[in-house]
Write a structure and sequence with these properties.
181 residues; mainly alpha; Fumarate Reductase Cytochrome B subunit; two-stranded antiparallel ribbon; 4 helices; 2 strands; elongated
Length: 181
Amino acid sequence: MATTQRDHYTSTAIGLHWLMALLIVGALSLGYYMTGLPFSPSRIRLFNYHKWLGMTILVLAALRLSWRLFHRPPPIPDHVPRWQRGAAHGVHWLLYAFFFAVPLAGWAYTSAAGFPVVWFGVLPLPDWVAPDPQLAKRLESLHAWLAYGLAAIVVVHVLAAFKHGFEEPIGYLDRMLSSRP
């Protein structure tokens, strides 16, 4: 079956997708790992790396959303059942919501905990809230639960991509692997 450029994502969309995928997996993995470490200079360094990843994801999410608003994604093939189309749209918008919610909750948490975010050790970002230990505990929990939610949605997204990638006759997964038909 012949495909057209309209059947594929743009190179920019593909690049942002895979860069964010890598950064999100890295941030989730680092976050899970570092929270179990005892207090040490190494743990503090890892927390800073985690914050840098989060702020980078936040910036890339804004770029990605802007790109998507002005560059429509290729349509879902007509043979995909209506409920799966709805699920695909819902999962994509949930991913976008988590792309923003997780780093923003983390930023608010670190502000409430009294630790500044200095992006890449160079650019100090403003605190969202005044230091407040009780608020910090609640925001830490919120950030963790949002991260678990993001991880769950990512797993659903990946499983659906593989399902469609191996079952679709037109190489549905290829649309995010190459911008050329």
